Amino acid sequence: MKQSMSFIPTLREVPADAEVKSHQLLLRAGFIRQTASGVYSYLPLATKVLEKIETIVREEMNRAGAVELIMPALQQAELWQESGRWYSYGPELMRMKDRHERDFALGPTHEEMITSLVRDEIKSYKRLPLTLYQIQTKFRDEKRPRFGLLRGREFIMKDAYSFHSSKESLDETYEKIRNAYINIFTRCGLNFRAVLADSGAMGGKDTHEFMVLSEIGEDTIAYSDSSDFAANIEMAPVVAEYEKSNEEQEELSMVETPNQKTIDDVSAFLNIDKTKCIKSLLFKVDEKYVLVLVRGDHEVNDVKLKNLYEASIVELATEEETKDIIGCVPGYIGPIKMNSEKIEIVADHAISFIVNGVCGANKENAHFKGVNPERDFKVNQYADLRFIQEGDPSPDGKGTIKFAKGIEVGHVFKLGTRYSEAMNATYLDEQGKAQPFIMGCYGIGVSRTLSAIVEQYHDENGIIWPAAVAPFEVHVIPVNIKNDEQRTLADRLYEELTLAGFDVLFDDRQERAGVKFADSDLIGIPVRVVIGKKANEEIVEVKVRKTGESTEVPVSELKDTIQKILQNL
């Protein structure tokens, strides 16, 4: 591609509204332009990167036995109503009506559509397993689009769906796709982790996220410092061992704690360690009220609470609800003399080890001291209900937990029969009996992957693309395009390198050398070939973008030199 004929509108200044490096650099280097909040045009350079990522995705998905198709982005409401998600998905679902007042949604994902399609076409177990995928634009009306392509309202996604007649078959495909994802993100050059995660609004239980390590990531990963264990902080199980004090139990007593609502306040006011405080929070779990107890230095993990009750919705009770149900405001509530008919009490395992603790007295400006679980209150159920902390033992028994930030670029789910049962999607088994399909779901944020690569690969001068996904492999730059010898050699090398199979961008613009070099660094093509004063000697300068290393190379050795560089990147 000749640069004079392409569309690469580079910028010298950092756009004021671009908060993170990937957003800044993709705008400055002429890869994207914003057309509305969270909506972007992909310019020619970004389009080439997306094509290369998609090629990697297709190769690995096809190798895993998946088959590509394309489904409509415009989906009728009836399908979403069948699954129940028309009502539960939330305001992120972009809804609209056609001229006949029929309801539609712009697809954020395609579980309903693919289930409907397979339901109508696959009738026998003999056609299973089946894995179908597509690469398509998706739509989610994010409340706060941010970070450029990392959180947009319109984005490119690869979504795949598998259908099975047994859990064993699902497990096998799940592992194939999980390994395919490892290959995809490895080939893209990313530093990532596959972490145990929560399925959220998608449904299902077994799921892994693929997280690109980055300080600007919105998710926290808990990982072992001595093994390959990694999990989203919401899902990391706690296996800490607690010790119970052998001190004598004190009598229960109520003390005044005026305006002391938080654990920090109460701990300081009563001069007691936070580990002896019982934090009591009232949750609404579907239609049931549950009082959750955790130790004062711990935080309630609402995802674990949701999974414990296999609930659809878990939310903290409002101040008004707390007053109505318990009779006092949050900050002073506790488990003692709680109405067990109205409220179920569940506690994290650490609570059972507290001796002579402190908890709210269900009376404003008052707390109980000398609190001992089981003697002073009963717990319906003990469970792992807190967030894991740095320094906790790793759940696999190897090392201790550390935290890192991550950008989610992929997610794999075992959906089970969540959608097939809701939508009456069945096949006939070997006995001729109708059975619901057992399903898996597998997504990759293709446009988000592009941005995540830039977050990990850049320096102060611009982007540094890994060779496998770079928009071009080689950037041919004549220092002075008006010089006949330089122009002639540059033209020739452009043709020869292109015929040799290299992806080449030829900067044939009538610009100063400094402008060309600055743009080249900004765009981030792996290998730069500069034709300068030694053009008459057929010697060029080859510079590696990643290392900054420059070497003079005879034209006769240029192809081999470039090939070796690209193989080693």
UniProtKB/TrEMBL annotation:
Checking InterPro entries in the record gives: aa-tRNA-synt_IIb, aa-tRNA-synth_II, aa-tRNA-synth_II/BPL/LPL, Anticodon-bd, Anticodon-bd_dom_sf, Pro-tRNA-ligase_IIa, Pro-tRNA-synth_IIa_bac-type, Pro-tRNA-Synthase_IIa_type1
Q: Where in the cell is it found?
A: Cytoplasm
According to the lineage, what is the superkingdom? Bacteria
Q: What is its main location?
A: cytoplasm
**The keyword Transcription is annotated on this UniProt entry:** no
* Record keywords: Aminoacyl-tRNA synthetase, ATP-binding, Cytoplasm, Ligase, Nucleotide-binding, Protein biosynthesis
Mind telling me which Pfam families this protein's record contains?
A: HGTP_anticodon, tRNA-synt_2b, tRNA_edit
Give one GO term, molecular function aspect. proline-tRNA ligase activity
Q: Which reaction does it catalyse?
A: tRNA(Pro) + L-proline + ATP = L-prolyl-tRNA(Pro) + AMP + diphosphate
Aminoacyl-transfer RNA synthetases class-II family profile domain residues: 33-466
Q: Per the UniProt record, which EC number(s) apply here?
A: 6.1.1.15
Query: What's the stated role of this polypeptide?
Result: Catalyzes the attachment of proline to tRNA(Pro) in a two-step reaction: proline is first activated by ATP to form Pro-AMP and then transferred to the acceptor end of tRNA(Pro). As ProRS can inadvertently accommodate and process non-cognate amino acids such as alanine and cysteine, to avoid such errors it has two additional distinct editing activities against alanine. One activity is designated as 'pretransfer' editing and involves the tRNA(Pro)-independent hydrolysis of activated Ala-AMP.
Family to which the UniProt record says this protein belongs: Belongs to the class-II aminoacyl-tRNA synthetase family. ProS type 1 subfamily.
**Domain note:** Consists of three domains: the N-terminal catalytic domain, the editing domain and the C-terminal anticodon-binding domain.
This protein's assembly is summarised as: Homodimer.
Which protein, by its recorded name, is this? Proline--tRNA ligase
Q: Which organism is it from?
A: Aeribacillus alveayuensis
- Taxon lineage: Bacteria, Bacillati, Bacillota, Bacilli, Bacillales
Name of the gene = proS
